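Can't paste images in this forum, so I'm doing it all in text. The chain is below; anyone willing to post the predicted structure tokens underneath?
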Amino acid sequence: MRFANTILINLGFIFIIKEQMKNPKILLRGLACAFLVVGTFFYYKHQEQKKIQLINAAKATEMATSSDAGGNAKNNYKLTCQQGYKMIKPLLSANQEREYSGFTALKAKIGNLIEDNKKNSVLSSASVYLYNFNDGKWLSVNPDESYNPGSLIKLPMLITYLKESENDPALLNRKFTFEGAGNIPTQTFTSASVKKGNSYTVNELLHYMIANSDNNATKLLNEHVVIKDFVKTFTDIQLPEPNVSDRNYQITAKNYSNFFVVLYYATYISKANSERAMELLSECDFKDGMLKELPANLKVAHKFGEWGDNRIGLHELHEAGVVYLNNKPYLLTVMTKGSNTKDLSTVITRVSKLVYDEFSAPDANQPNM
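Text version of the structure:
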């Protein structure tokens, strides 16, 4: 069309020049008229093209906010911001408001696994939260169930100390002496521990607490933490304020996952400290849950927690972590209740394998970055 218009305009010029060469004045007036006509033509042509571009841009924006590439309904994002500032609201995370419909089949598999284990009396309840870091897509199974976090509470303790160290750089090298365990919970899954009478830097204690889930190191860190700062770690990332004296404190899988989200995106503590935290979490030596059926060389930054009451025969085992699967990193949190801790670890293993298989399979719905 554009080529045809150009030919017609050129023919018009040739006709004008040919017919009016005999009279220069008429020729000049004709040329002036021709330029006016051509200028007007291109002006309106430009305005028409600009209008089309604006319409296309509006359509593209509408598509981007209302549907995906296949024309399916698309989520808006819910922004979570840190409060307590006058002029700013630091962004903590951006999650899609609605659960991702593309995870429906995976959610059904997880739900069936949970129900089968409940029928077999392995589980009394279980909750799962899955989050795709590349696009904010998520799923949640039994989101309203809450659990005693047990050793999962060590992660916000780690974040609190790293946050405090940003105002007190000497803190991580400060030494504390372990005087004895006292009354601390016992664990089914144990590892290396600090020794009575020895002194350790905060850095060393954080390693014992996270990599080895050492309750002795945790006790020593608890004794020296600033309680209001620990509580603030929860409220800063929009979680309910915990009662630090309540041994029956409860949390949901989705809420707990927020600690990993702000670490991965480095939106709460510094980038260096977020990296440090994730490195410590990747050294966690618990292998009987999420990692058991995953490739041995796969990087996973994770933390497990357990709680139990032998008087009523109830135990809880949980695990949460970031799985660095090529360019498709995801967060998985699994919380379980049942009568046998070893059986609960098997449930976590099987959920983890279901999710891994979903993310490792070729799938256009899982974008690369």
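Residues 80-360 form a domain with the Beta-lactamase fold (CATH 3.40.710.10). Residues 6-11, 50-66 have pLDDT under 50 and may be disordered.
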